[in-house]
Amino acid sequence: MDARLSAEAVRAAERLRHDVGKSVRLSAPDVLEADTEALRARLRADVLETRRDRSGSTAAATLFDAWRQEQGGLFQAGALADRLAELGRAIDQIRRLAARLDALDRPGLERLDGLTREVAERCRELSAAAKAARP
Asked: Are 125 and 13 in contact (CB under 8 A)?
């Protein structure tokens, strides 16, 4: 990986960390909500309405898909590609659970919350690994 590509990969990983990793946990409290409907409402906001603007809202999985389409090619081989693949699998699980958000029971909501933690952590790890890989 040359220096220019490394710098571009670091910027891409940082964008993902901010746009998906941070945003998917934006409203999350330090302690999981005791009220199931409050947990569901927070997950709806963080997972299904991750980015909100005048044109509407965009889900975390959709943001990840767009990022991967635009920037994922920077992480085609080695450990960074493996980390991105792991992140993609977690996003796919979020996508499946989020599609049934209104019907999820408490354990399902807690699983979805755990996946948002995993995505946030994997985004941080990808960013740190990209920075460490710079020449």
From this structure: no
Question: Above 60 in pLDDT, residue 90?
Answer: yes
Per-residue pLDDT, averaged over 47-75, amounts to 93
Say whether pTM exceeds 0.70.
yes
Q: For helices 78-98 and 60-71, what crossing angle results, to 10°?
A: 150
Residue 20 has pLDDT above 80, yes or no: yes
Kindly list the domain boundaries of the chain, sorted by start residue.
3-132
Contact by Cβ (8 Å): 21, 123: yes
